[in-house]
Amino acid sequence: MSFCCGASMIGTKGTLKHYRTQVHNVPLLFCPVCHRVEVHYKVENEYEILAEYAHGDGASEIDFQDYVLEDEDTIFENCVNHENEDPFEMVQSQIDMGLDLLSIAKQIQDEKWEGELKKRLAMLSQRKLKLKQKSSKIR
Q: How far apart are CA 120 and CA 1, in angstroms?
């Protein structure tokens, strides 16, 4: 499981730009709190090599899946949430995990971690509220 600022990162695939080359279908990890994106650690080296070669060849875009065969289930098996899940349920799951971690922080009396978790839980709660308001407008 990968974490960023107190939240579990979400497994997804996306496009990254390496200089002038767009690399499509790259396995990524996305933080639902701060929106940080990083290449999944299991394919980080392959991505760097492929992106450098493609850039060196002057390719404007390539598909990661055409060159690196990785089973999606294996890559994202350690991710708690995935992009194709319901956003509201995903945020609720992140809040639940944050509350569990907050309980541990209180037990070990780590005030710094406790403060960080409370801040992130507040951000996740705001995100949940926005999703709730958005869904009520659609109905």
A: 18
